[in-house]
Amino acid sequence: MTTTGEQFDPQLDLAFEREVPLPPEAIWAAWTQPEHLVHWFTPAPWRTTECQIDLRPGGLFHTEMKGPEEGQQFSGVGCYLDIIPQRRLVWTNALLPGFRPNPSFADSSCGDFPFTATIELTPTPGGTLYKAIVTHRDADGRAQHAAMGFEEGWGKALEQLVAHMQAA
């Protein structure tokens, strides 16, 4: 699988692809408007409780997520890299807003891993071909992300996105 301008590396990258019965515009709105994103972004039983989006290269992408058990909480912060409305959205957690390096990844023992995510939307007669490609710094980061349930989690989140946008 290739992405626009990049080569997919199965040693470092994970990919997820499905055709969904929504137009690209609806998926784009789900990804770029906090009032939609909080309803689907985190696979249940986790939930997204906050979202901030500054949709421009170098802009903020921030989410707060809570798990079903007391004290389970995760904060995600990153930076948008590339934005082509209704076609392509790229962000990374390796950089903070303004393209500032994320100091969390200076120490590889921090228990988290840097990645860059690309969402590609291609119109189809039945809706949209949805591709998510996540590139990792190293094989360990890829393995950690895969072990967390990348395929299942991103699949469940996409199902939640479709259900939310069909009801919206």
UniProtKB/TrEMBL annotation:
InterPro entries: ASHA1/2-like_C, START-like_dom_sf. SUPFAM superfamilies: Bet v1-like. It comes from the Bacteria. CDD domains: SRPBCC_CalC_Aha1-like_3. It holds the Pfam family AHSA1. Residues 22-165 form the Activator of Hsp90 ATPase homologue 1/2-like C-terminal domain. Belongs to the AHA1 family. This is SRPBCC family protein. It comes from Chitinibacter mangrovi.
